[in-house]
Design brief:
752 residues; mainly beta; four-stranded antiparallel sheet; globular; Beta-barrel_TonB; signal; transmembrane
């Protein structure tokens, strides 16, 4: 009895103590836009507690003893601040802070266990240190990622990463503000991802992660994912004019619609437009035209609810010189920048609407809702084999589609404390529905005459997914992330060439678990172990004939890595990784056939180093090596064609206080096999670029030079069997698209 009374007395005393504790609640704003800042690290310096701001720039510390506290706020490229605040019993102390932009100081970057799974230290710095010159350059900000253009600038780039020839996006998930870029069951290839509707000047940041380790990311997340975040507000209205070699011209204008009046109400709205024209460096003039228009509104529906509305529209039309065989160039039949079929080219457009709602409830639930719609049109004329199949008219093909895409992303998350452990629980649901009209593959001549339709049909593809994610900060040093997602696919194909018209459907589902560990020894060293299962879907024209079986090939991966600051001004990220892929069926859009491929494995090493040489000079280097192999094949016959084996990028970035800034960069891709037995080799290249700016408050002058050494290089290469018009037998060899020669442009930007 006596023990029971003592226990009750102790419990009542504890409750009394806790009843008199206080709280700190704060919001952090960007001084330039007066909009909330997400991802700011907030530390109670004398308590060892830390957190990060949510989507509304908010943070909160609970159950604090009445006293004075120091709070340190830090964010990459913003001036750090230390503020003092007094906590009073039974009260919540509110604080509002604004952070100002500044040059990056690597010494201020802290490796934290807070939200370790979401840390993106590399991309946050690189976006500030490397001036963006075009939409293609955005992808190159991902360490180890290479791109190649082989259809005149208007077609989506070919992507290479972690021992993958990713084609145009088959094994990498690309999004813009959470809206999908990849197109499923596309006329040209599965996962086709065209980013040309993005205006480079509007890119605020690039988030990425290599491997299938994030429960929120679904289809195509095998090699990794990349999300581009566009600006919610413009610091200034601006007009930018560019002119360069090869009849290249570009004009961009962005207008801040609400100005200071909007910022005072935490609202912003802008409209931006872009026009580009170029004949490019090919012997066959490109006549490349692109038009982009973007409008965006960001504001409050209520005190704790943000609304973001974005509209994009984009149109592009071009000619291109296509891929040319080595023998045609080496024999002198054409020049290095020549063409076999000068009538190749294309036309594409995309219009997007994106609505995002973020609400933080009184009990600190973060609720996100996003609805999006895209109308997409695509028409491409290509000729890869010349006169192999049709010795009279040639082998030109047309790939064409019209698409409507509807989708939704939603999630609810909450942070809770159980003892000293902090649990962040997230539940989410995602949905996308793709409807294409008359997806076509046809044999054509001169982009005018249709000789034969190989395929013509309507595609109806639905993907619904749910996921659960738990991030547990076990101690101040140790964090565990556990997640799982379930995806369901329903595919239907209506064959319009069949007599009578035939319509079939199939469906399947896949479960993808994730498990990640992070241990932060101190603010200079963190080790992590990522593991997870991902997948990419297959084309509906594969799924339906297979009856929905074996059409969601799994990918199992793991990363063992570290983030390390050996010196205050040096940051290192290194990882050893492994990825195993299950058997799959591949739809070859250029031929309209299905090619089965077996199991494969890839393993390698990634290294990224950032070093601040002086207050104004920064150096960086990324090195990636991979060993990709097909399983079940004889040694020497198990190479994966075009998969990169070794690559490196790097350079110097300059940020001077007098307004001079810029970068000198290189990229290197080593030789790699072009076929399964490595008897045909895709030659490597080394190319360097220069960007130099003079920036003042009212204007910016810029000089951009691609390939400053005027290297003759092959940007994309393929092992292809083809026949030229004067040949009697076909030849198998490298077919290539030449890379950019020395290409200089100047720009002038006016801010107002």
């Amino acid at each position: 009895m006596k023990k029971s009374l003592l226990s009750l007395l102790f419990l009542l005393t504890s409750l009394t103590v806790f009843a008199h504790l206080g709280n700190i609640s704060g919001t952090v704003f960007d001084k330039a836009t007066n909009l909330p800042l997400k991802g700011v690290t907030v530390q109670l310096t004398n308590q060892g507690k830390a957190t990060v701001t949510n989507d509304l720039g908010q943070y909160r510390f609970e159950d604090l003893v009445a006293s004075k506290y120091k709070i340190e706020l830090s964010h990459v490229s913003f001036t750090s601040q230390i503020i003092e605040i007094t906590v009073v019993d039974n009260q919540t102390s509110f604080v509002k802070t604004t952070l100002s932009n500044t040059n990056i100081e690597l010494s201020e970057v802290v490796i934290s266990s807070e939200r370790a799974h979401d840390q993106q230290l590399i991309s946050s710095m690189d976006i500030k240190l490397r001036p963006i010159t075009n939409s293609q350059e955005i992808l190159r900000m991902v360490p180890g990622l290479f791109i190649g253009q082989h259809a005149g600038g208007g077609k989506a780039e070919q992507i290479f990463l972690r021992g993958f020839d990713l084609d145009h996006g088959t094994d990498i998930r690309l999004t813009v503000d959470g809206m999908p870029v990849n197109m499923v069951s596309h006329a040209h290839g599965q996962g086709y991802a065209d980013l040309h509707f993005v205006i480079p000047e509007l890119v605020k940041g690039v988030d990425f992660k290599k491997g299938p380790y994030n429960a929120e990311k679904g289809n195509f997340t095998t090699a990794g994912w990349v999300d581009f975040r566009t600006k919610d507000a413009l610091d200034h209205s601006f007009v930018k004019l560019e002119a360069g070699q090869y009849d290249s011209f570009r004009a961009v204008a962005g207008i801040d619609l609400l100005g200071k009046t909007g910022r005072d109400k935490n609202q912003s709205a802008y409209i931006t437009s872009e026009y580009s024209f170029s004949n490019s460096y090919f012997d066959n003039p490109q006549h490349f035209n692109r038009v982009n228009i973007v409008g965006k509104y960001h504001g409050h529906l209520a005190a704790n609810t943000n609304l973001t509305l974005t509209g994009f529209t984009f149109y592009s039309k071009w000619n291109h010189s296509g891929q040319v065989p080595d023998r045609a160039y080496e024999s002198g039949q054409i020049g290095f920048f020549g063409s076999i079929d000068p009538s190749e080219g294309g036309e594409t457009s995309r219009t997007n609407f994106n609505a995002q709602f973020v609400t933080v409830t009184a009990s600190n639930f973060v609720i996100k809702n996003q609805a999006f719609y895209s109308n997409y049109n695509f028409e491409l004329y290509s000729n890869f084999t010349f006169f192999l199949k049709d010795s009279i008219n040639g082998d030109q093909i047309r790939q064409k589609e019209k698409r409507n895409l509807y989708g939704y992303n939603g999630s609810i998350s909450k942070e809770t404390y159980l003892g000293k452990m902090r649990w962040t629980t997230t539940l989410g649901a995602q949905f996308r529905h793709d409807l294409t009209n008359k997806t076509e593959l046809s044999h054509t001549k001169d982009r005018i005459t249709t000789l034969e339709r190989y395929q013509l049909g309507d595609i109806n593809e639905l993907n619904a997914g749910v996921y659960a994610d738990e991030l547990v900060q076990v101690t101040d040093q140790f964090t565990v992330n556990v997640g799982v997602r379930i995806d369901y696919f329903h595919n239907q194909y209506k064959d319009l060439l069949a007599q009578p018209v035939d319509s079939k459907h199939a469906s399947d589902a896949i479960v993808s678990p994730k498990l990640n560990f992070y241990y932060t020894f101190n603010p200079r060293l963190q080790l992590y172990l990522n593991s997870g299962k991902g997948f990419h879907s297959n084309d509906t024209r594969v799924v339906v004939p297979q009856g929905g079986k074996q059409i969601l090939p799994a990918a199992y991966g793991s990363d063992l890595g570290m983030i390390f600051k050996p010196f205050p001004k040096m940051l290192i990220n290194a990882a050893a990784w492994y990825l195993w892929l299950q058997q799959e069926f591949v739809y070859v859009g250029d031929a309209g056939v299905i090619e089965p491929s077996g199991k494969s494995k890839r393993q390698g090493l990634d290294l990224s180093v950032r070093y601040q040489l002086t207050d104004i000079l920064y150096a960086d280097i990324d090195i990636s090596s991979a060993k990709p192999r097909a399983l079940g094949e004889a040694a020497g016959m198990n190479y994966l064609p075009l998969a990169p084996l070794f690559s490196s990028t790097g350079g110097l970035a300059l940020q001077m206080k007098n307004g001079i800034n810029g970068s000198l960069r290189y990229r290197y891709m080593a030789n790699r096999p072009a076929n399964e037995d490595n008897s045909i080799v895709a030659k490597g290249y080394f190319v360097s670029d220069l960007q130099l700016n003079y920036t003042k408050s009212k204007y910016n002058l810029g000089l951009s030079i691609q390939n400053i050494l005027n290297t003759k290089w092959k940007e994309t290469q393929f092992d292809t069997e083809s026949r030229l018009k004067n040949e009697t037998t076909p030849v198998e060899e490298i077919h290539f698209t030449p890379g950019t020669p020395f290409f200089a442009r100047v720009s002038w930007t006016l801010f107002f």
